[in-house]
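note to self: dont lose this again. the chain is below, predicted strucutre after it. 251 aa total, dont forget to put it in the shared folder this time
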Amino acid sequence: MFPRALLGEARKRPELGRPGVYLLLGEDEDGFPELYIGEADDVGKRIAQHDQGKDFWTHAVVFTASEDEGLDKAQTRYLEARLIELAKSRGQAKIKNQNQGSLPPLSEMDRADAEQFLENLLLCLPPLGVSFLGPKSPKKQAGVQKFYLSSKGVHAEAELTAEGFVVKKGSQAVLKETRSLPQSYKRLRQRLVEAGILKTAGDHYVFTRDFVFSSPSAAAAAIRGGSTQGTTYWKTKDGTTFKEWLAASSA
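---
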């Protein structure tokens, strides 16, 4: 992983001259993650081309294999398509790829090797701060704290996890937005609708899968459709607010 400003230095590493897959990372004006996924026979050369043609990215993450166990073109194309598929299923980032990417035909052994490479790749991302790529739902974690929100006729459940504040599948959100809702949250709600994460169900929206929010307030604003102090709206099962729970747990 390297910042865009050090692309020249990074290209001096022999790994960047090999076949592999890469992620270009950035954020939009609201701080929402943006992501481009690619593959190339020479990843360093390809990223250098993006340095001229793509403005959004600030960091790159590159995955290659050793020279003895190098990836072939079919496998890098397979990995690119699988990563795009996973990123879109999570809905946690704006995908900048114009094409979906197609899975090339692989032998059973080559596909198994590629899937093992993908599994190892995904394990490396969270320590690098890339938490928005992976399976559809965050993994179950033991001992997570649950919170609940009931307001404006909708009900929601969330968990505080290492990934962030996770609103659970089946939670509800209002259809109508108030004037107090900041534009950034309006755009976030629209992205959730476009990604199919929020789906209309009668007089409200319903979350079709788990979604990781950056904070309790962001989650509450998206659910209530208005500017919201999430630390007071989210409560434990016994009625303790998130703010009170946090103070007690930090004492």
